[in-house]
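Translate sequence into C-alpha cells.
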Amino acid sequence: MIYEGQNLTVSLLDNGFAELVFDAKGSVNKFDRQTISDL
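Result follows.
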C-alpha cells in the first residue's frame, strides 16, 4: 500500500500501475472535501 487516507487508498499493482480506490468508511463514496484533502 502506497497511501491510505480516510476516503481512499492507493496501491501499487504488480504491473507497475497504481490503483486508486474510493472507500469511505461508514459512508457512501462521494467526491467531497475530505476526499479532496486525501488527494
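Note: The chain has one domain: 3-38.
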